[in-house]
Design goal:
The structure holds two protein chains of two kinds.
Chain A: H1 7-22, E1 25-26, H2 27-37, H3 46-59, E2 62-68, E3 74-80, H4 82-106
Antiparallel strand pairs in A: 1-3, 2-3
Helix pairs in contact in A: 1-4
Chain B: H1 2-13, H2 17-38, H3 43-54, H4 57-68, H5 71-89, H6 91-120, E1 131-138, E2 141-142, H7 148-155, E3 160-175, E4 178-188, H8 191-195, E5 199-202, H9 207-210, E6 217-220, H10 222-227, E7 239-242, E8 245-253, E9 265-268, H11 271-274, E10 284-289, H12 295-312, H13 314-317, E11 320-326, H14 327-331, H15 333-367, H16 369-377, H17 382-418, H18 433-465, H19 474-513, E12 523-529, H20 536-551, E13 556-562, E14 572-578, H21 585-588, E15 592-597, H22 601-605, E16 609-612, E17 626-630, H23 631-637, E18 647-651, E19 660-666, E20 681-685, E21 693-700, H24 704-718, E22 728-729, H25 730-734, H26 739-773, H27 775-783, H28 788-817, H29 833-859, H30 863-868
Parallel strand pairs in B: 4-9, 6-8, 15-20, 17-19
Antiparallel strand pairs in B: 1-2, 1-10, 1-11, 3-4, 3-10, 5-8, 6-9, 7-8, 12-21, 12-22, 13-21, 14-15, 14-18, 16-19, 17-20, 18-19
Helix pairs in contact in B: 2-3, 2-4, 5-17, 6-15, 6-17, 6-18, 15-18, 15-19, 15-26, 16-18, 17-18, 19-26, 19-28, 19-29, 26-29, 28-29
The chains are: A alpha+beta, B alpha+beta.
Chain lengths: 111, 870
């Protein structure tokens, strides 16, 4: 239930879903991964990361379970559900539409 | 949707939620610290940086919990605790509101129980909405009933799974306490199958018993079983002797069999009755629709059937038609409209009560602006304030609901005493689960009705004023406008109720003032019902003997016997022919009333002789047959001639007409209280037609108690084993048709006065509040030399202005609403100017009185004190 008008919020949902579609990760790893793949362009504050994750969890798009990490500590790993997969496809389509539309506008040349 | 709810519920049930979150966030922080330390930051500093990056962990936790659990549930409990305290602090307001609500909810719920049993669930039979009443018509006129031959035709219809006919008759049973009158339902066809009647004991009628063959058998109703036989199972297979017939009791019906009402036993009609020709009309027909058949489909089949029967039996069925109605509606036809009007009235009173409470809440909201502002400043949101206020409303409504339901239990008993008997199942009216649910629903609606506006005001007001204390600012002015609006609405509703009450009362008075054509003063009546198989010789002997005894009563001026009392509907009617005269088609095809009366009846009932004389030979057995006709019939049939000496005969199917010579003309009596036309009737001597129901009428100056004890003693002495009804005044017995209008007028009048009181309270509250609010302003005015009188006038003027607007709106609404009363009104139009004027005058007077007291208080304000005030 992301609000299409809320660009930042909506994109964060999409990014999280995309990252989790590759493999289940815990919160810290997600924040690291975000930074890596966007070459530090997208810096999601830790303060907004967890609320976003929990919101997705309540929506039923991701699920969480406790697992042991590489350094032998318990951490909550998030993974994509089937509903989440559909949601991701939906969201990425709408993102493509939006971004291509914005591209069009941005590339308009004066005649 | 449900997935979310489920996940939330799971979280709610898990106690480890907080630890989970803590651990997750701690892990993140630790990882961040480790990373920073790896980059060379001192550990302590790394901790700080990590925490700073993360932000307020508490907020996170709150977000998390809000997302995962029912925080609002906890908040709601908090709201209720706070509201409880607030209400406790304002005990006066709380008590007034709760009492108002309890009265309104109690009355509405009690009346709903009548609507529920009387209109919505008048039948306990299984699938009652599949039951239909078949009414036959002759030439479009409501016919007295069907007959077994036609019943067989209806039974052949495919639209019905079962069809049965019935009539009821009284019978005397020699019980342990002497003779008792039992009511027997005579069935033709399988009544059990139609009604789905189950048995408590014993067995049903067999096929041959249903046809009336073999030894007479009977099923007891649950009512007779418990009341007459003390639920003693030994009655099964015993013989029950009623009059000349001995029935074997083969079973007992369950209490769920409640239609037809007031019946003691079911017995198939005797064989000879079941063979009656197509001419007769005495059966009521009920049917159960076949599965998947709709009423309209069944009606279509019945219409086709009627057409076929008309060509098959032209002599009897030519002009007959039949129409189907849901049995549920049929049993409640007469009472539907009065009940709905009453329910509307009582609901309006509840609404006015709610508006009153809303007004009080608004006034209190002004006082509580500071509280609201403080709540906002410490972080309460708009929705939280609204919720808080609604919690108060809900608490009030719950208390009102609880007390209201208790009141409803009392109210139901009151209603049983007040409502007329034709409300189905009036005697077993109870507060059942449906009624309780309705009461709770009504209370919730009430809470919404009186809580919405104040809650909105409370919340918006709080946002706009913040903490500054503004005295009587613009906000106050707006709120008082709102209260004015509420008061106007209250007044408008009261006016509608007052107009309705005035119209109903006017209609009732018209009905009472209406000339009935007979003189009920000093006339008393009682009746005797003999079985339909009574020999006509016995019948006439009983009448003669009883009349003889009545004449023996010292003080009897006149006495007589008649088949039906005046104003008791269902008169026999017939087409008539006049000897040697061809009637115009309009009259030849019109049915006129036919009454059988002894010669003394006219004097006893005070029906005047207009011309000629009454027949003498009331036995009329073999001698010359004589008749008298009502004046109305005389003007219809003999507009230019003297009717006396003409011969008249009921036009029947029989080939030889029975001629009656007209010997006199008597005054016409009203055929029905709500009819504008008087009855055109023919009276023939007692015994000229067979009718085993005798209504004796006696005229005497002596009081009722004397007549009653005389009749009682005489009957005991005679020891005929016949049961006479208690003696009543003729007025009482003939005014039974007035009981519904009277009840409606009284109850709506009562509700209207309560509404008026509430509206007055509303005006008073508003004006008193305004005076209090304007104390300072009035003080200044008085100090500057204003006359106290003009201050008071100003105040009253405002009250009257509101009342005028309310009255105006109310009269307009009443103009439309009163049209719904329709046939409840008699002799008065729904737009009767006098009623409207009365209502308006009463309301304006009340409003003036209500604003007088606050106005006087305003005028008496001491300027010095007022200026120091606050």
């Amino acid at each position: 239930m992301s609000k299409p008008s809320d660009l930042v919020q909506g994109t964060l949902d999409l990014l999280l879903l995309k990252i989790l579609s590759l493999e289940p990760l815990h919160g810290w790893a997600i924040s690291q991964r975000l930074r890596q793949i966007s070459s530090d362009v997208l810096q999601v504050s830790d303060g907004s990361l967890y609320p976003a994750l929990h919101k997705l969890e309540v929506e039923g798009w991701i699920k969480a379970d406790w697992q042991i990490t590489e350094n032998n500590r318990r951490a909550k790993f998030y993974s994509l559900t089937t509903a989440g997969k559909h949601a991701m496809e939906r969201e990425s389509k709408s993102w493509e539409r939006l971004s291509s539309a914005i591209n069009h506008v941005v590339q308009l040349k004066e005649i | 949707m449900f997935g979310r709810l489920f996940r939330k519920l799971r979280y709610l049930l898990r106690s480890t939620v907080n630890e989970d979150l803590d651990e997750e966030l701690r892990y993140h922080l630790d990882m961040q610290v480790a990373e920073l330390v790896k980059r060379g930051m001192p550990e302590r500093e790394a901790h700080d940086v990590a925490r700073r990056n993360f932000g307020n962990t508490m907020l996170h936790k709150e977000d998390y919990r809000e997302a995962h659990s029912f925080v609002w549930l906890e908040l709601l409990a908090q709201d209720f605790r706070q509201s409880w305290r607030t209400l406790g602090r304002n005990l006066g307001f709380t008590v007034v509101s709760i009492v108002t609500l309890a009265l309104g909810i109690g009355a509405t719920t009690a009346l709903f129980s009548v609507v529920d049993t009387g209109l919505l669930h008048p039948l306990s039979a299984p699938e009652p909405d599949r039951l239909v009443w078949l009414q036959e018509f002759s030439k479009g006129h409501n016919d007295s009933g069907s007959n077994p031959a036609r019943l067989a035709d209806w039974q052949a219809a495919h639209s019905f799974s079962a069809v049965a006919g019935f009539y009821s008759e009284g019978a005397v049973w020699l019980g342990p306490q002497g003779p008792e009158q039992l009511q027997v339902l005579r069935t033709v066809g399988n009544m059990n199958a139609v009604l789905g009647a189950q048995l408590e004991l014993g067995r049903r009628f067999t096929e041959s018993e249903i046809r009336g063959d073999g030894q007479p058998v009977a099923l007891l109703t649950a009512r007779a079983f418990s009341q007459r036989f003390h639920s003693n199972r030994a009655i099964l297979n015993q013989t029950l002797t009623l009059g000349k017939t001995s029935y074997q009791v083969i079973g007992v019906l369950t209490p769920l069999v409640d239609y037809p009402e007031d019946i003691d036993l079911w017995a198939p009609a005797p064989r000879e009755i079941q063979k009656t020709s197509r001419v007769a009309g005495f059966l009521g027909i009920v049917a159960r629709l076949a599965p998947n058949i709709k009423l309209a489909q069944a009606q279509a089949e019945v219409d086709v059937l009627c057409g076929r029967l008309a060509s098959q039996y032209p002599a009897t069925d030519r002009d007959r038609s039949a129409s189907l109605a849901s049995l549920v509606e049929h049993v409640s036809t007469g009472i539907r409209k009065p009940l709905l009007v009453l329910f509307g009235a009582v609901a309006s009173v509840l609404l006015i009560g709610c508006l009153n409470i809303a007004g009080l809440l608004l006034a209190r909201g002004l006082v509580r602006r500071r509280e609201a502002a403080i709540r906002v400043s410490v972080g309460a949101g708009y929705s939280r304030l609204v919720r808080l206020f609604f919690a108060e409303s809900l608490l009030l409504a719950s208390a009102g609901c609880f007390l209201g339901l208790l009141l409803a239990i009392v109210g139901v008993d009151l209603l049983k005493a007040v409502l007329p008997d034709d409300v189905p199942h009036l005697a077993d009216l109870t507060i059942n689960i449906r009624v309780i649910l309705a009461g709770i629903g009504i209370s919730l609606l009430a809470a919404i009705a009186f809580g919405t506006l104040p809650a909105w005001q409370f919340a918006t007001g709080a946002q706009s004023i913040a903490l500054k204390d503004g005295g009587a600012g613009s906000v106050g002015a707006r709120k008082s406008w709102l209260r004015g609006f509420l008061v106007v609405t209250e007044i408008a509703f009261s006016v509608v109720l007052l107009v309705t009450a005035a119209l109903l009362a006017g209609s009732f008075l018209q009905m009472r003032a209406k000339s009935t054509g007979f003189n009920a003063a000093h006339a008393y009546t009682f009746n005797l019902e003999l079985p339909w198989d009574t020999d006509s010789g016995v019948l006439n002997l009983t009448a003669t003997e009883t009349l003889g005894r009545l004449s023996g009563f010292p003080g009897t001026i006149a006495c007589g016997v008649v088949d039906r009392l005046p104003l008791h509907g269902g008169s026999q009617s017939n087409l008539f022919v006049v000897h040697g005269k061809t009637l115009p088609p309009l009259l030849a095809e019109k049915e006129f009333g036919l009454r059988t009366a002894s010669a003394g009846f006219f004097a006893a009932a005070g029906i005047p002789i207009v011309a000629g004389a009454i027949y003498h030979d009331w036995q009329g057995a073999n001698g010359a047959r004589e008749a008298v006709i009502s004046q109305r019939l005389a003007t219809l049939l003999f507009p230019y001639a003297d009717p006396i000496g003409h011969e008249i005969a009921p036009a029947g199917q029989a080939r030889d007409l029975r001629w009656f010579r007209i010997v006199g003309v008597v005054g016409s009596i009203a055929s029905h209280l709500t009819d504008t036309e008087t009855a055109a009737e023919v009276y023939v001597p007692w015994g000229a037609t067979y009718w085993p129901l005798m209504n004796f009428v006696v005229r005497t100056e002596r009081p009722l108690a004397d007549v009653s004890s005389y009749v009682h003693n005489q009957m005991q002495k005679a020891n005929t084993g016949q049961i006479f009804s208690p003696v009543a005044t003729l007025d009482e017995r003939t005014a039974e048709t007035r009981s519904t209008p009277r009840m409606a007028a009284f109850l709506v009048g009562g509700f209207a006065s309560v509404a008026l009181g509430l509206a007055a309270l509303g005006i008073f509250g508003l004006m008193a509040h305004e005076t209090a609010r304007r104390t300072q302003e009035i003080g200044v005015r008085l100090a500057l030399g204003a006359e106290p009188g003009s201050i008071a006038r100003d105040s009253i003027k405002r009250g009257i202005k509101l009342a005028m607007i309310g009255v105006f709106v109310g009269l307009g609404s009443a103009w439309y609403a009163s049209q719904l009363l329709g046939n409840l009104l008699f002799g008065i139009t729904p737009h009767d100017v006098a009623s409207y004027a009365t209502a308006a005058a009463i309301l304006l007077a009340t409003a003036t009185c209500a604003s007088l007291l606050p106005a006087l208080r305003a005028a008496r304000i001491d300027p010095i004190r007022a200026l120091r005030h606050e």
